């Protein structure tokens, strides 16, 4: 009889533990700087993090809506379709709302045994800007070094010509 009386407390503790674990997982997902979307086998959104809301300007909950309701772009949807057909992780580079992103996809198994797809969207804007700055810096350094080197080469050629002319006069 004691066990039956203790069961509601045990169940309540168990549910509290599950809720705490869920909140911890949600906090972790929402602090990740990449957008994360989990899809089921019907291409419906199971879950997503806060970064996805920022990337796609989400105002209303999109859970259990098809991915095309989140972003209706032919290239994006084609990449998602290819990822479903692929047996391995895939990587795509694309522009979303004017910003460059790398989308990494991986098949996964959902809790009910259903096949799902995980999408990870990484904003590449900072990488692209850094690469552009590196190229500009290299071009500027190259230009700045060529000018003095050209002057030095011209002076050397002039000196060599002067030395030849002096040798001709000596003879």
Features:
single chain; about 170 residues; alpha+beta; about 20% strand
Count helical runs: 5
Largest sheet: 5 strands, antiparallel
User: What letter string, H or E per element, gives the SSE order?
Assistant: HEEHHHEEEH
The rounded Rg comes to 31 Å
- The low-pLDDT segments are none
Count of distinct strands:
5
| Principal-axis shape | elongated
Record the SSE blueprint:
Blueprint: H1 2-31, E1 35-39, E2 45-48, H2 50-56, H3 67-70, H4 74-85, E3 90-96, E4 99-109, E5 115-123, H5 125-170
Antiparallel strand pairs: 1-2, 1-5, 3-4, 4-5
Summed up:
The chain has 171 residues and is α+β, with helices and mostly antiparallel strands. It is 58% helix and 21% strand.
Describe what you observe in this structure.
The protein has 171 residues and is an alpha+beta fold. 58% of the residues lie in helices and 21% in strands. It has 5 helices and 5 strands, in the order αββαααβββα. The protein has a 5-stranded antiparallel β-sheet with strand order 2-1-5-4-3. A hairpin with a 2-residue loop joins strand 3 and strand 4. The model has no long low-confidence stretch (mean pLDDT 85).
């Amino acid at each position: 009889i004691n066990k039956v009386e203790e069961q509601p407390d045990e169940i309540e503790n168990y549910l509290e533990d599950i809720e705490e674990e869920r909140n911890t997982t949600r906090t972790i997902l929402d602090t990740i700087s990449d957008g994360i979307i989990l899809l089921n086998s019907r291409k419906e959104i199971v879950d997503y993090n806060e970064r996805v809301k920022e990337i796609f300007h989400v105002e209303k909950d999109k859970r259990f809506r098809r991915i095309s309701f989140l972003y209706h772009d032919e290239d994006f949807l084609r990449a998602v379709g290819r990822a479903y057909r692929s047996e391995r992780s895939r990587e795509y580079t694309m522009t979303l709302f004017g910003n460059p992103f790398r989308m990494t996809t991986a098949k996964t198994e959902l809790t009910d045994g259903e096949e799902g797809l995980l999408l990870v969207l990484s904003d590449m804007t900072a990488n692209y800007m850094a690469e552009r700055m590196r190229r500009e810096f290299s071009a500027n350094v190259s230009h700045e070094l060529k000018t003095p080197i050209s002057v030095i080469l011209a002076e050397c050629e002039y000196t060599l010509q002067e030395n030849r002319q002096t040798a001709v006069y000596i003879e």
